[in-house]
Amino acid sequence: MSVEADIINRFFKKKTSAPLGIGDDAALINKNTKEYWAVSQDTLNVNTHFLPSTPALDLGWKALAVNVSDIYAMGGQPKYALVSIAINKHNMPWLEDFSRGLHRCAKKYGVEIIGGDTTRGQTSISITIIGSVEKKKVLKRSGAKLHDDIWITGQIGLAALGLDYLKKKITLSGSAAKFAVKCLHKPSPTDIQSLQKYQLFHSAIDISDGVIADLSHILTSSNLSANIFCAQLPVSTWIKKEKAFDYALYGGDDYQLLLTAPAKNRNRIKKLAAQKRLKITHVGQVTNEKEMMVFDPNGRRMKIVNKGFKHFVK
Ligand code: ADP
Ligand code: MG
């Protein structure tokens, strides 16, 4: 268990009257007989979650986008947000850009900003998001079933690639670099409502800490295991060519969704996704083996080296 999870379990996890409390992408509160409110909060701290050089416009976008993905991960639609910002100084151009990015993202995902807080401190943005979920379509981490297919929306690994490029750890060609940095700064969460309205999936999580770490959360909650095939991962041509699958497996910051669905829905998911122009890729299976297994493109088992981004490393 990560130190973060240990802290949460030890100090904050208590019994709740809410239908779903701590432990998923969002908590659930009864809205009416047919719907829940899904509520979640994600924070971006300077130097921990973003480089001080991140353009304010992108930061405004990203601060909200990382919350939108948590509502999508519950099978819901984002509706309202409260935005808490801490800033060091009263910097008008920065605030103008930041708020423009924030409002652009809000417009794109249909979110209304209804409150927040403004304080002085190291730059930090913390957003509480509220979404609506139909009870019949709700997706919980604990919903995965044995033999489910594992699916991933969009492309993954690019944000981590962009970060390594900005940190000068790797070199990329102009257009590849531009796209990777865009994925890091302006994540575009995928709304799977057009598929989930037919209740095709069993469980979901947003990929914030890399496939291995986030899939582990689903597997732990569902008491199961999984096989993942790198050859099937939706990664960029650069990652494929360099066999740099670690960017997708351990990179994080993608904010795409990882979902599980019964194998009988495979063709329907593919067909509907093609119709809706929604990118979703089948990457593996849920198993009841002792541990998760990852296979390289030659079918050889890879060692699982670490479990993605952690705030507190022992
Ligand atoms: P995510 O990766 O979706 O942002 P986290 O790993 O941050 O989720 O959190 C896991 C769960 O623990 C979530 O349900 C979250 O709401 C809850 N959580 C995290 N920190 C706290 C805290 N300080 N107090 C109460 N609940 C917390
Ligand atoms: Mg999440």
Account of the protein in words:
The strands form two sheets. The chain has a seven-stranded mixed sheet with strand order 7-9-6-10-8-11-12, with helices on both faces. A five-stranded mixed sheet has the order 1-2-5-3-4, with helices on one face. It has helices spanning 3-12, 56-73, 92-109, 158-166, 174-185, 193-196, 211-222, 237-241, 246-250, 266-276; strands at 27-30, 35-45, 77-87, 112-120, 124-134, 149-153, 203-206, 225-229, 257-261, 280-287, 293-295, 301-302. The radius of gyration is 19 Å and the shape is globular. It is of the alpha+beta class and 314 residues long. It folds into two domains: 3-136, 2-Layer Sandwich (60s Ribosomal Protein L30, Chain: A), CATH 3.30.1330; 140-302, PurM-like C-terminal domain (Phosphoribosyl-aminoimidazole Synthetase, Chain A, domain 2, Alpha-Beta Complex), CATH 3.90.650.10. Helix 2 (56-73) packs parallel to helix 3 (92-109) and helix 4 packs across helix 5. Bound molecules: adenosine-5'-diphosphate and magnesium ion (MG).
